[in-house]
Amino acid sequence: MNALIAENLTFSYGTRRIFDRVGFDPIAPGQLTALIGPNAAGKSTLFRLIAGLLKPETGKVHLGDTDLDTLTTRTRLERVCFMPQFFTANAALTVFDVVMMAHKQLKGWRVNEADMIAVGTALQEAGIGHLSEAYVSELSGGQSQMVSVTQALIRKSDVYLFDEPTSALDLRHQLDVLGQIKSAIADRGAIGVVALHDLNLAARFADNLILLGEGRILAQGSPAQVLRADAISNTYGVAIETSKGPREELIVHAYAS
Amino acid sequence: MSDRTLVSGDAMALVRAYKLRNLRRILLVCLAFVLLAGLVVIDITTGPADLSIWRTIQVILDRSIATPKEDVIIWQLRLPVALMAIAVGAMLGVAGAEMQTILNNPLADPFTLGLSSAAGFGAALAIVLGWSVIPAVGGLFVSVNAFVFAMLTSCALFLFTRLRGVTPEAMILVGIAMLFTFNALLAFLQYGASEIQLAQLIFWQLGSLARATWGKVGICFAILLLMLPWFMSRSWALTALRMGEDKAAALGVNVGLLRITVLAGVSLLAAVAVSFVGAIAFVGLVGPHIARMIVGEDQRGFLPLSALCGALIISGTSIASKAITPGIVYPIGMITSLIGIPFFILLILGQRKRHWQ
Fold it and tell me: Would you give the DSSP letter of residue A197?
């Protein structure tokens, strides 16, 4: 299958080294992978390296047999859909407009019936149909995050990278949005990586976890494996315990010492 | 289509709302076109000659029926001015719209980036010192000087962005530095100028359509015909840019390249417009703002309507400049500021949605 692999990635912002020969094991399609790690661990940077928005000094990212560096930026970004973390637009564009823009992916001036139905359906399925005619400048933080996720999911890509898609959402919408992402990844047989701060959400939704810290991949595997590893306590600088919740789900507890 | 049956009624309601808005957008653009045609005819009729509107339309449509007097007044004197008004208005409107888009700044227009003051300085060099930057251009040397200086300014901007990266803040700041530099240099020239030269200089700085000729009108329309389709072909990328650089880049837009190429196109439009008619303030600022309030910022509606709004403003101003005192044609730049600013403030006060915060 077309797994996503990175090897030997080295990257610095100026003189500040972020990654030194970092790689991760193949990420299998159809499963949701959560990228976890403390602030400034390099989660967004890793996403940008995969998407090709930043160029590594050394190393390669492969999708199946394809070396992503051999693709043009445009093609690479069509195959790898990256949702950046922050989105504050003050533009006089409606939600329908911006989702249409993501759907068209800079191609073709005309908008046909099928395009419009695709966008209408996507908005409806994402539960933001009522915002369709609202201007993006009037949305709350949580609403614009949901629009952002819809913009990503309407695109047909092989790899989806979501940078903190739930940071501004309330409890119900966190579950909704991650549920949407998970089922979309499974249905499309695509590769999905979500950067998350909330370890409980990561444990609930992800099939695999990647722990990033100190410029390295510290652990990769099933939630039970990664969350019980020593590395996670060391990286976050807190004591981490896990237990089983009332519905047999993995629950993470953090203690300051 | 088989999935058509699966589409929910709610989704179709969203599609209908979008279609309705698209239809409204197209209707508004058509309406602006009709309005513009009307203004052009009124513009030609206005002035001392007692032409009737109906007769004017007939003569415009069929030159052969014109009396010699009508031929001179309509075809040789007033039609070039009226067409120059809409060409320059459209050029400034488009230039302002795209500058605001690429710089993500509501105050950007050919003035903010120093293009107009550079052009003014170039013209002043020609008027006061008789210097021509490019020799052997004959009577056009004021315009050519203005154009060369405006283009040099954008080259300087371009070079600066090569050195320091293409951020909107840096571009605006360099633009403002240019603005003050050229204003200071202009003041130097004005200080040393004779009274006649000073009068000429001030006339140039106030902006005037009076020097319009068919040749200049042709150049303006040719450039518009070249640039508009090109900007339109970039419309998704430009719309995406309004969602923020990160978003646009993630969609595959080469943000730096887009900014530079659009800046080059915009400079050409603004430099040509300013070099032919002098400094006409606020059209590049107000036109796009009106368009944005009416149709939003999807470039497919925003760009044509910005051009049309710019054209409508200058065409309307041209009429006003002749109608205020019969027999006197006021410099048009004066009127655009006088009419434009209060109108603009009214629009801002009455605006429910704020898109720049």
Answer: S
Positive or negative, the Cα torsion across B263, B268, B269, B270? positive
Dist. CA B337–CA B343, nearest whole Å: 10
The alpha-carbon gap from B106 to the nearest alpha carbon of chain A, in Å, equals: 11
Interface of A with B in 34-53 (CB under 8 A): 51, 53
Nearest CA in chain A to B231: A109
User: How confident is the prediction for chain B on average, in pLDDT?
Assistant: 85
Nearest to B260 by CA among B143, B167, B132: B167
Q: Which residues of B touch A138 (CB under 8 A)?
A: 353
| Best CA proximity match to B210, nearest among B322, B97, B72 | B322
DSSP string, A101-131: HHHHTT--S---HHHHHHHHHHHHHTT-GGG
Q: What confidence score (pLDDT) does residue B4 get?
A: 46
Asked whether the beta carbons of residue A87 and residue B247 sit closer than 8 angstroms, the reply is yes
- Return the residue matching tokens 């789900």: A249
Choose among B15, B252, B296: nearest Cβ to A106: B252
CA atoms within 13 A on the CB side of B130: 1
Residue B97 distance to chain A (closest CA, Å): 13
pLDDT of residue B357: 44
ipTM over 0.95: no
Please tell me whether the overall predicted TM-score, pTM, comes out greater than 0.95 for this model.
no
3-state secondary structure of B78: helix
pLDDT value at residue B134? 67
CA–CA distance, B241 with A90 (Å, rounded to integer): 11
Tell me the shortest Cα–Cα distance from B88 to chain A, in angstroms.
26
> Quick check: A89 and B244 CB within 8 A?
yes
B273's tokens: 């417009």
Closest Cα in chain B, distance from residue A90 (Å): 5
DSSP at A68: G
- How wide is the angle at C-alpha A94 spanned by C-alphas A89 and A100, nearest 5°? 100
CA distance B158 to B163: 9
Q: What single letter denotes the amino acid at residue B115?
A: L
- A236 Cβ under 8 Å from any chain B Cβ: no
B165: helix, coil or strand? coil
Q: Parallel, antiparallel, or unpaired for β A80-83 and A159-163?
A: parallel
At residue B243, the 3 state secondary structure works out as: coil
CA A4 to chain centre: 14
Record: contact A135-B296, CB cut-off 8 A: yes
Q: Under a CB-based contact definition with an 8 Å cutoff, are residues A115 and A100 in contact?
A: yes
